[in-house]
Design a protein that fits this description.
Strand content: 5-15%
Structural class: alpha+beta
Distance between the termini: 41 Å
Radius of gyration: 18 Å
CATH class: Alpha Beta
Number of helices: 5
């Protein structure tokens, strides 16, 4: 109905506002959600174990201190998938804080790390993407959306967990999900995983 009140040139603006507003309303129930957190430009930052370790450390912090419950995860070169929930229906807030903190921590590491061979290019790319976002004054690390999908049935939860675990196999990185180090598919878990 509101679309009819706006002229055609404003249609894109209305669409973007609607998407942002709906994003805020998602991931705010007690159900588990399937989330995808992606770097801007799909930059392959998680090819370095030091950045993956920062993600793991911060997921562990959110589990121990913010009530995050993780059922499955995988860290891929440019993104991470989670099947997670929050008992207080505040998953969207926990993920917002997680993204903010990890972005700052990883960007600080890139700026100060002399051993990062892609340092100048990475800084340039994160600055480039920040130009188009008012709230990102210097750098932008994560894409704005998490693409939350509510998982309200056990069969859907199982399907998404299988998808998460098979992501490295489908991408051709490993032949078996349990071989991918930064995943909940193997026996050597880096963070506590909730039973389904």
């Amino acid at each position: 109905m509101l679309i009819l009140l706006f002229s055609i040139p404003n249609f894109t603006l209305l669409t973007n506002i609607t998407r942002t507003m709906s994003e805020l309303r998602k991931a705010n129930t007690d159900y588990p959600y399937f989330l995808t957190l992606t770097t801007v430009g799909w930059i392959d930052i998680f090819t370095r174990s030091r950045y993956c370790d920062m993600i793991i450390k911060n997921l562990r912090y959110c589990i121990e201190n913010k009530g995050l419950l993780v059922y499955a995860y995988v860290i891929m070169p440019s993104h991470l998938h989670l099947v997670a929930r929050h008992d207080g229906a505040k998953l969207n807030q926990v993920i917002r804080d997680f993204k903010s903190f990890t972005a700052k921590e990883i960007l600080k590491s890139i700026e100060s790390e002399t051993g990062e061979s892609r340092r100048e290019w990475l800084i340039h790319m994160f600055q480039y993407f920040a130009r188009y976002q008012k709230q990102n004054a210097k750098y932008m690390f994560w894409q704005k959306t998490n693409h939350p999908i509510e998982l309200s049935y056990p069969a859907i939860i199982d399907e998404k967990i299988e998808y998460v675990h098979n992501n490295p196999v489908e991408a051709g990185h490993v032949g078996d999900p349990s071989f991918w180090v930064y995943s909940s598919a193997g026996d050597d878990l880096l963070i506590p995983i909730e039973p389904v």
